Amino acid sequence: MNDMLFTPTRLGRIALRNRVVMAPMTRNRAAADGVPTAIMAEHYGQRADAGLIVAEGAWPEAEGQAYCRQPGIATAAQVRGWQRVTDAVHARGGSIVLQIMHAGRAGSRHIKPAGVRTVSASAIQARGQIWTDAAGMQDFDVPEALSTQQVHEAVAGHAAAARRAIDAGFDGVELHGTSGYLCMQFMGTGTNRRSDEYGGSAANRVRFAAECLGAMGEAVGIDRVGLRLSPGNTYNDSADEDPAATHAALMREAARLGIAYLHVMRAPDPALDAFQLARDHFGDRLILNDGFDAHSAQAALQRGQGMAISFARHFIANPDLVQRLRQGLPPAPFERRTLYTAGPEGYLY
């Protein structure tokens, strides 16, 4: 088996010097106002040997914030903070895109600034709780349903966030379409009870995500836009009667638009082959994610299942992961206790 994992490739306009991708991981190290911090610049710079870094989900507007100390891409100060991150990655010859993530109903008034709403496709509260620095564990908010006009405004907000990301020096953007956040809230039959053009059929339910992709593409170039999907994902109380059909509809729209890549996670249900679904309905510009090691990553590339492989937890304690994979060395273990705490412990190595 050759070292295909370590050969260069290109996804749209985004150049990768190898096919090892760092997957987006929320780590809650931003300042309270969502401004990326100096340790975030150091963290991402340490991992710039990856062929591509997908930086953690950043909220495009205050309504879209999910977590305490989650970075945004909504203000000038946040753009400047991200510029330090992209400068650190580019100084080491790396490529980096920003994942744009509107959380929708997955949030709490104890996290957002006073008076900022929690919104969703429909006014259906997610079951479960979320950590807040201000009040500890809290139930998810009951969201307000976006009006049709407000949906259009949210689409425009994604385009504006994409422009700000490019202003911050990112090589591209990735739309977060999974984990029970706003795009998935529109997609799922369990979270979307709308009667306008964004509800009902699968084609209508994927319309919001497709329009976000199109608007982001108009803003920064469709060849700099990616999409992250996880068919069958039930995180944050997601539910859909036929996730394969729903995701196939969005994959076809993404292919029609000509986005740079589709970043697809292995389905939690082994009966649903998310990778094959993506090849059938999107094509071969795929980044595959979840559960790979060096051998299985090489094998997947050799079989032509995708063009790159993304790793998440292995990058936490291994800024040198690319070299470890190349040399056949096992990854160092990470400390779960420090995954989401503030400060450098468990974050800088």
Structural features:
8-stranded parallel beta barrel, two-stranded antiparallel ribbon, 16% strand, 14 strands, single chain, 349 residues, alpha/beta
What does this structure look like?
It is a single chain. This protein is α/β, with parallel strands linked by helices and 349 residues long. Helices cover 32% and strands 16% of the residues. It contains 11 helices and 14 strands. Helix 1 packs parallel to helix 2, helix 3 runs parallel beside helix 6 and helix 6 packs parallel to helix 7. The radius of gyration is 19 Å and the shape is globular. The mean pLDDT is 97.
Main pleated sheet? 8 strands, parallel, barrel
Helix-strand makeup class = alpha/beta
Question: Strand sequence of the main sheet, in spatial order?
Answer: 3-4-5-10-11-12-13-14
Helical amount among residues, as a percent range?
A: 25-40%
Integer-rounded radius of gyration: 19 Å
Task: Return the string of H and E elements.
Answer: EEEHEHEEEEEHEHHHEHEHEHEHH
Low-confidence stretches: none
Mean pLDDT value = 97
How many β-strand stretches?
A: 14
Between the first and last Cα atoms, what is the distance in angstroms? 32 Å
Q: Which of globular, elongated, flat, extended, rod-shaped describes the shape?
A: globular
